[in-house]
Design a protein that fits this description.
Layout lengths: L11 E6 L3 E2 L2 H17 L11 E2 L12 E2 L2 E2 H11 L4 E6 L1 H14 L5 E6 L7 H9 L10 E5 L9 H4 L9 E7 H4 L18 E4 L6 E5 L4 E3 L6 H9 L6 H9 L3 H25 L7 E4 H12 L3 E6 L11 H15 L14 H10 L1 H7 L6 H11 L21 H19 L6
Parallel strand pairs: 1-6, 1-8, 2-3, 6-7, 9-14, 10-13
Antiparallel strand pairs: 4-5, 8-12, 9-11, 10-11
Length: about 425
């Protein structure tokens, strides 16, 4: 394995507002309903009615265009990037994404950043092609990492710890893993403190023997594109949600048996020790995939012939994406709660770009409501989706008021307090670099 010496600071980003399409709305809805029903039957912590696109939609059900507090999800994600130290941003998306992007930047300004748009390829919507479209817009050196992230992370605004992470120097990909124990350390004693509900299918034993973490796959990737085979990136992403990352690595390594033999000692140690270690700590634990952190680093780095590391972060905004209607409700409830706090509340109290986002809602959204079909009557549009996905309630009343029964859950106030404190710290002190 070739050692690497990258620049620590990440200055360029590809953000994707693109997503694959299913062949029909009926197929997409059936998949969403079936998944949710299986999670309900299994008593899962997080139930997800997925927001899926289809080729026969009259209105493109693109989750990045959904409105949170009357503002597109993609604008929150763009605001996060504009608040950061990034210098160049490439946006990949549909023609409607381009329309929102141009109006948004004309309203709030680019803050001196170079921002380029590239249209998605409707005939080729896979991740590998999306990355290629974005990559072709950038001039990339062989010793720099590029941040890739999907655009459905509306409150992930503390990016500097990723952009300036010291581990960027010696690794070609960093997996920012979502650790339940780090993000919500009191979830056992205080269940309401876990204000983002997700299912954690993976386990990792940290460097200390008894330190077991429940994990969910990463949502953003610092990547050295010049030193990584694009197929590896596709393998890593496509296998991240089904626990097949080791199998993907072995499949690639079989083309070069030397890699497999280098990784073999760590794989053997894993096979003989991991499950017994987990059972000692948590006898009833059930999981899809798990490994010790050391064995994971060593085996994957050798199998893929690239230096990889992981970071078990403590920031809930990294896991809080908008894949499902339940996720959208988390943020609609959060912003609804914030707006009802009088002078002490408002979006600007929980998001550092909140003032600019509200400016765009006032000045830009009236125009977009005339141009983008989804926005003509968004409450009615959402209510229809809830009905077709067999939800037992609708989030808006006939007057367009947000009335979800989940709007006043204890977790909503927990989220509000957490983001308010986070926003206050970012606005009052210099960013801390890990």
């Amino acid at each position: 394995m070739v050692l690497t010496k990258n620049k620590i600071q990440i200055e360029k980003c590809i953000v994707s507002f693109s997503h694959n399409k299913y062949d029909s709305r009926k197929l997409a809805d059936n998949l969403s309903i079936t998944k949710a029903k299986s999670e309900i039957a299994a008593g899962r912590n997080g139930v997800s009615h997925l927001i899926l696109r289809s080729k026969d939609d009259e209105i493109d059900r693109l989750k990045f265009l959904f409105l949170i507090h009357g503002i597109p999800v993609m604008c929150y994600a763009l605001g996060n990037l504009l608040c950061s130290s990034l210098k160049e941003i490439v946006v990949v998306g549909s023609t409607e994404v381009q329309r929102v992007l141009e109006l948004f930047l004309n309203t709030v300004d680019t803050r001196g950043k170079t921002i380029q748009f590239v249209g998605e390829d409707d005939q080729n919507l896979n991740l590998l092609h999306t990355l290629s479209l974005g990559r072709n817009k950038l001039s990339i050196e062989d010793n720099e990492l590029i941040l890739f992230q999907p655009g459905d992370l509306p409150f992930l605004y503390d990016l500097e710890k990723v952009l300036s992470f010291k581990g960027n120097k010696s690794h070609n990909i960093i997996l920012w893993l979502n650790s339940r124990q780090n993000m919500f350390p009191e979830f056992n004693e205080k269940p309401d403190s876990e204000f983002v509900k997700r299912n954690y299918h993976y386990r990792i034993l940290n460097d200390h023997g008894g330190d077991l973490h429940e994990l969910k796959e990463p949502n953003l990737y610092p990547i050295n594109f010049e030193r990584m085979d694009p197929v590896i990136i596709d393998y890593l992403h496509s296998s991240r949600k089904d626990g097949q990352i080791i199998h993907a690595g072995i499949k690639m390594a079989l083309k070069n048996p030397v890699r497999f033999f280098k990784a073999l000692p760590y794989l053997v140690d894993h096979a003989f020790t991991f499950r017994s270690h987990v059972q000692k700590i948590s006898p009833e634990d059930k999981y899809q995939f798990g490994m010790s952190r050391r064995n994971f680093h060593k085996s994957i780095s050798n199998l893929l012939n690239i230096p990889i590391t992981t970071n078990l972060h403590d920031d809930p905004s990294f896991v809080s994406d908008v894949d499902a209607l339940e996720d959208w409700e988390d943020f609609e409830s959060l912003t609804h709660f914030a707006s009802n706090q009088g002078k002490e509340g408002g979006l600007e109290k929980i998001h550092p770009f909140g003032k600019e986002l509200m400016k765009f809602r006032e000045k830009g959204m009236p125009f977009l409501r005339k141009k983008i079909p989804m926005y003509r009557n968004f409450p009615s549009y959402l209510n229809h989706i809830y009905k077709t996905l067999e939800m037992d309630y609708e989030p808006f009343d006939s007057g367009g008021n947000y009335v979800s029964p989940n709007a006043n859950l204890p977790e909503v106030e927990q989220a509000y307090r957490w983001y308010k404190q986070k926003c206050k710290l970012l606005n009052s002190t210099p960013d801390e670099v890990p």
